[in-house]
Design goal:
Helix content is 11%, strand content 39%. The chain is mostly beta strands. The chain folds into 2 domains: 222 residues, Jelly Rolls, CATH 2.60.120.10; 62 residues, Sandwich (Jelly Rolls). The protein has a 7-stranded antiparallel beta sheet, with no helix packed on it. It has a 6-stranded antiparallel beta sheet with strand order 1-19-16-20-15-14, with no helix packed on it. The longest helix has 10 residues. The relative contact order is 0.19. It comes from Alkalibaculum bacchi.
């Protein structure tokens, strides 16, 4: 088992809801809390056991055998929480094939959210009203975003899967658990002309965004209950209450993220907002109840 220290990241659109999930209270606009990350830019520190003090990326690369047979070269998942005090940029993510050809990376970005708190408006941006790239481009040039972007109603505790190529954005008030392929490649269409502390606007990526946009793709919002499982192309997730003895009887490792509750494992206090990796065959005992998301990679 690997218990992981969270990573707090400031964003232009972040808020303060993640403070109660163990986020850094010194960050005024805390938008992202990464609980499982293992790439060159972000990697969690391990808090327990043989690898205590090491980071997950190095442990994964040097000891792939502990994660199972035929593991990919790079850790395949990126997991955390997102607090959107403001709307996120209108954006789209590339798929694996595009990333391999144009970005020199193995993985694109499909992602899923569980809405811990829904957006204030009751809907997120998702999908295109305009069904050709040419018409999308025309409306971008004239600034008619209302003619382009569609919306998706979402409620508390609903699940949304966003496939690569889908135009989307979380909107203000959203607090979500997020799982994605382990890449942060995002192509922005529009960012509300926001500026950073230096007065600089964040870059847009219109050419690449149009390249990867699929105007036919739109997500669904589904209710997800305790014990229910969702299987996507690159990962599985299940909402689950862990009480008492719990064993990973699968043939792969579990990425377990705590949504509610606390306990102590391997002399480390586990709190809401933390994650740990439970290897195949490992067993834990939880004194109280943990409401968790259990995720596993399919590659």
């Amino acid at each position: 088992m690997l218990i992981l220290e969270t990573i707090s990241l400031p964003t232009l659109w972040g808020g303060q809801k993640l403070y109660s999930y163990g986020g850094d209270t010194n960050i005024e606009k805390l938008g992202q809390l990464y609980t499982i990350a293992a790439d060159d830019e972000l990697s969690n520190r391990i808090l327990n056991g043989k690898y205590k003090g090491d980071n997950l990326r190095d442990v994964y690369r040097k000891n792939p055998q502990i994660f199972g047979e035929n593991t990919p070269i790079e850790f395949p998942l990126l997991i955390g929480f997102v607090d959107a005090r403001e709307n996120l940029s209108l954006q789209v993510h590339p798929n694996n094939e595009y990333c391999k050809q144009y970005e020199g990376k193995e993985m694109g970005k499909c992602e899923s959210w569980i809405f811990i708190e829904p957006p204030t408006s009751g809907e997120i941006y998702n999908g295109c009203k305009t069904k050709t790239r040419e018409l999308v481009q025309e409306n971008i040039h004239t600034g008619n975003w209302d003619n382009i972007i569609d919306t998706l109603p979402v409620k508390k505790d609903q699940y949304v899967y966003v496939e690569a190529g889908t135009l989307h954005a979380l909107t203000a008030g959203s607090l979500v658990y997020e799982i994605q392929q382990s890449t942060n490649l995002t192509y922005r269409f529009y960012d509300y002309d926001r500026v950073d502390k230096l007065g600089n606007k964040r870059p847009l990526h219109l050419d690449k965004a149009l390249d990867v946009l699929d105007t036919e793709k739109k997500s669904l919002a589904e209710n997800i209950q305790i014990g229910e499982r969702r299987e996507e192309e690159y990962y599985n997730i299940m909402l689950y209450n862990i009480e008492g003895q719990f064993k990973n009887n699968s043939d792969t490792y579990f990425c377990i993220t705590v949504l509610e509750g606390s306990t102590t494992l391997d002399e480390v206090k586990i709190c809401k907002g933390m994650s740990f990796i439970l290897f195949s065959g490992e067993e834990i005992y939880v004194e109280d109840k943990l409401k968790c998301v259990i995720a596993s990679s399919k590659i």
